[in-house]
Amino acid sequence: MKYFVFFLILGTLYLSACRDNNYASSPDISLQFSTDSVVFDTVFSGIGSATRRFKVYNPADKKIRISEIRLAKGNASKYRLNIDGLPVNKLNDVEIAGKDSMYIFVEVTINTNEDMLLEQDSIIFLTNGNYQDIKLLAWGQDVHFINAQIVGTDTWTNDKPYLIYNSMLVDTNQTLTLEAGTHLYFHRGSRMYVAGTLIINGTLEEPAVLEGDRLEYMYFDVPGQWNGIWLMNGSKHNNFNYAEIKNAIIGIQVDTLADLNIPTLTISNSKIEHHSYAGIYAQGTTVTAFNTLIADCGYYALALTIGGSYEFYHCTIANYWQNTFRDYPSVVLNNYYEYEGQALIRPIDKALFTNCIIYGNKKTELIIDKHPDGNLNYTFDHCLIKISDDTGRDENNFIDVIYNQDPLFVNTDNYNYELDTLSPAVDKANINYINSYPAKLSTDIKGFERLLNQKADIGAFERENN
User: Fold this and answer.
1) How many domains, in total, are found in the chain?
2) Same domain, yes or no, for 312 and 194?
3) Quick one: which of 113, 187, 203, 330 has the most CB atoms within 10 Å?
4) Domain limits at 414?
5) The 116-127 sheet, strands edge to edge
């Protein structure tokens, strides 16, 4: 019996030694990482961050045992980990096979009353007696938090950003004013509903910005991050100046049943870009636009449908959408809709485009969808348009139009729609409209004087060397 026990102990020690030999246990062997730090862009106070990840590599031929992985601040940390599929902030005896790797995912939530707060921590790895770490850094931003809220008459300033979570509503007969530099971030699926009036008082130096709440650089031109602005039935006297509206499904939806004698929307010196469906989608309403850029939209840049009254002066409508296949023109005019097999007529009393560019990467960027039993009164005066012969247009309504000539934008890949020196749009504008609306049109979208040489360019941007 004594011999049996002796050999049992000996065998156990041997097997244990064999198991230990299967691990890379030298203190000279260190883990390798895909990064030395995990950095979060600005994180809104009280709202969890996006998820970051990095890889942990075992460079040895044998498997390695990590004795401990943990957050340096422990339970006091603002960060959260998921270690190789386990949602824990500390884990012992983690094994990685030879020449293999694993993922660690990191999130952070910061609560701060400070305008900006730097939150630091690190992830500690203990392997074969060696300590290694990955630095964690995040900037917390205090915000005005708007959550499924009905807003009355109020003025929002640029003291700190506004985060709209689960949408918001400007109530009937109430006016919300956004002052210069005001920044609104919208969480995914959120929308600004306006039953009353929205006034945007941006400036050239400090535009008001409305966009999605993903602040990482890779999201700056990603469409569909929020639902957009909806000027609802009964909304009136909305006035946007120096607004930047970005990354929504529909940038501005202007609803039906407006009184054509009361303007629903006047927009000036603004940029409406990177929307997955449309930049402006108007239905039987009134829109007047000056010096405005509408660009990079998945279906329409500008849809003027089921009637209304519209005026566009010195606007650039440029659609070089490349995210998916685009099967629709940038601009569509329409005076009817189908209901139970019947065409219901809604006349467009006016659709005036003067000194505008309508161009993009489709064969045609303008469609006139006119029902013969209704009025669709349109005029394109001194415009540059990409258009094919089958658009249903009446040539009498096109005055001194430049057809199908590339406007030679500076760089469409970088969304720079200023004009190159050799652009056919240079000096081709009808300056009578500028003289008619000097307060709106004497300068371009960048504040540059239009009539320095007594001529002006077509579009929202004036060549600065004119």
Assistant:
1) 2
2) yes
3) 330
4) 143-441
5) 37-44, 130-141, 116-127, 64-71, 90-96
Tell me which residue has tokens 């979570």.
Answer: 165
**Rounded distance, CA 320 to CA 316, Å?**
13
Q: How far apart are CA 237 and CA 298, in angstroms?
A: 28
Query: And the tokens for 228?
Result: 């957009």
Q: What is the CA radius of gyration of the chain?
A: 30
Do residues 328 and 431 both lie within one domain? Answer: yes
Q: Report helix, strand or coil for 415.
A: coil
Q: Is residue 448 domain-resident?
A: no
pLDDT in tens, the chain (466 residues): 454 444 444 444 444 444 456 888 888 889 999 999 999 988 998 888 889 999 999 999 999 999 999 999 999 999 999 998 999 999 999 999 999 999 999 999 998 877 678 899 999 999 999 999 999 999 898 999 999 999 999 999 999 999 999 999 999 999 999 999 999 999 999 999 999 999 999 999 999 999 999 888 889 999 999 999 999 999 999 999 999 999 999 999 999 865 667 789 999 999 999 999 999 999 999 999 999 999 999 999 999 999 999 999 999 999 999 888 898 999 999 999 888 888 889 999 999 999 999 999 999 999 999 999 999 999 999 999 999 876 666 778 999 999 999 999 999 999 999 999 999 999 999 999 999 999 999 999 999 999 998 999 999 999 986 5
Determine how β-strand 384-385 pairs with β-strand 357-360: parallel
Alpha-carbon dihedral 444, 380, 377, 279, rounded to 10 degrees = -50
For residue 137, what are its two tokens?
């850094």
Query: Are residues 74 and 158 both part of a single domain?
Result: no
Report how far apart, in Å, the C-alpha atoms of 357 and of each of 305, 314, 428 are.
20, 8, 11
**Neighbouring-strand partners of residue 333:** 304, 368
- Quick check: is 424 in a domain? yes
Distances (CA, A) of 139 to 75, 219, 370: 20, 18, 53
Complete DSSP assignment for 350-377: EEEEES-EEEESSS-SEEEE--TTS-EE
Other CB atoms closer than 10 Å to residue 33's CB: what's the count? 19
129 and 270 share a domain? no
Q: Which helix (DSSP H) or strand (DSSP E) does residue 203 occupy? A: none
